């Protein structure tokens, strides 16, 4: 059942009440799509695919500008008793983004809530010990400039391992922050990119699953909160893929 605005406020207060997160004052920024590599059935991601993707970006005149890195953490509650408040989320995702080093983002997919807070909230959470990190993923790779587009291609690895879990690609269109106004040019760019990549005959392709941002109370003007929601969606897909592979093997 969808949550009302009042329910959103209640959950936000019970979850991060004393942190006073900025829920509605996020600054608009250039629009970004986050794409995920989808392997063909029976195949997995590997470092050679990542290298080929990076070479393809350079092959369409992408200029390498440097490295980028983002971190994502999956939190679960530390249950001290059996009676847990129904308003407290059963899990959520926390994320730090390179473009907002002083901010930290929480996404509660089950409640369709995204919260922007000060980065110091992580220290507060450690002291409160209400939630514990269960999975931490690192997204890192290289950033490229291609005309009005900025591309970031990176691997997905656990925080304490080099075991490749996935490949992501950010496509950022610098002149526009409106989701709808940029949709056509983004779709056209992705078509061109997919065509260029298909010539390398790689065992898979990039997919873009756009969340329903309005469910999270987000407007047409793009913000870092939109990015956090997209990465939370990617995280859910990675978990689902891993579970599917495990089921097939068993």
From TrEMBL:
<dbReference type="InterPro" id="IPR013921">
    <property type="entry name" value="Mediator_Med20"/>
</dbReference>
<dbReference type="GO" id="GO:0016592">
    <property type="term" value="C:mediator complex"/>
</dbReference>
<dbReference type="GO" id="GO:0003713">
    <property type="term" value="F:transcription coactivator activity"/>
</dbReference>
<dbReference type="GO" id="GO:0006357">
    <property type="term" value="P:regulation of transcription by RNA polymerase II"/>
</dbReference>
<keyword id="KW-0805">Transcription regulation</keyword>
<comment type="subunit">
    <text>Component of the Mediator complex.</text>
</comment>
<keyword id="KW-0010">Activator</keyword>
<keyword id="KW-0539">Nucleus</keyword>
<dbReference type="Pfam" id="PF08612">
    <property type="entry name" value="Med20"/>
</dbReference>
<comment type="function">
    <text>Component of the Mediator complex, a coactivator involved in the regulated transcription of nearly all RNA polymerase II-dependent genes. Mediator functions as a bridge to convey information from gene-specific regulatory proteins to the basal RNA polymerase II transcription machinery. Mediator is recruited to promoters by direct interactions with regulatory proteins and serves as a scaffold for the assembly of a functional preinitiation complex with RNA polymerase II and the general transcription factors.</text>
</comment>
<keyword id="KW-0804">Transcription</keyword>
<protein>
    <recommendedName>
        <fullName>Mediator of RNA polymerase II transcription subunit 20</fullName>
    </recommendedName>
</protein>
<comment type="similarity">
    <text>Belongs to the Mediator complex subunit 20 family.</text>
</comment>
């Amino acid at each position: 059942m969808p949550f009302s605005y009042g329910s959103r406020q209640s959950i936000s207060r019970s979850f991060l009440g004393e942190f006073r997160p900025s829920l509605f004052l996020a600054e608009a920024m250039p629009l970004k799509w986050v794409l995920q590599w989808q392997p063909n059935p029976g195949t997995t991601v590997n470092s050679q695919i990542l290298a080929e993707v990076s070479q393809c970006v350079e092959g369409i005149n992408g200029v390498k500008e440097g490295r980028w890195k983002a971190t994502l953490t999956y939190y679960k509650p530390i249950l001290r008793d059996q009676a847990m408040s129904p308003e407290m989320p059963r899990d959520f995702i926390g994320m730090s983004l390179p473009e907002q080093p002083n901010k930290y983002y929480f996404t509660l997919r089950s409640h369709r809530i995204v919260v922007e807070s000060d980065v110091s909230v992580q220290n507060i959470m450690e002291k409160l010990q209400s939630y514990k990190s269960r999975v931490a993923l690192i997204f890192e790779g290289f950033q490229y400039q291609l005309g009005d587009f900025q591309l970031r291609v990176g691997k997905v690895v656990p925080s304490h391992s080099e075991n490749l879990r996935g490949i992501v690609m950010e496509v950022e269109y610098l002149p526009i922050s409106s989701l709808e106004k940029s949709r056509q040019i983004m779709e056209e760019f992705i078509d061109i990119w997919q065509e260029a990549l298909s010539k390398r005959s790689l065992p898979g392709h990039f997919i873009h699953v756009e969340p329903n941002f309005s469910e999270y109370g987000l407007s047409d003007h793009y913000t870092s909160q939109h990015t956090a929601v997209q990465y939370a969606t990617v995280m859910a897909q990675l978990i689902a893929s891993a579970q599917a592979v495990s089921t097939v093997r068993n």
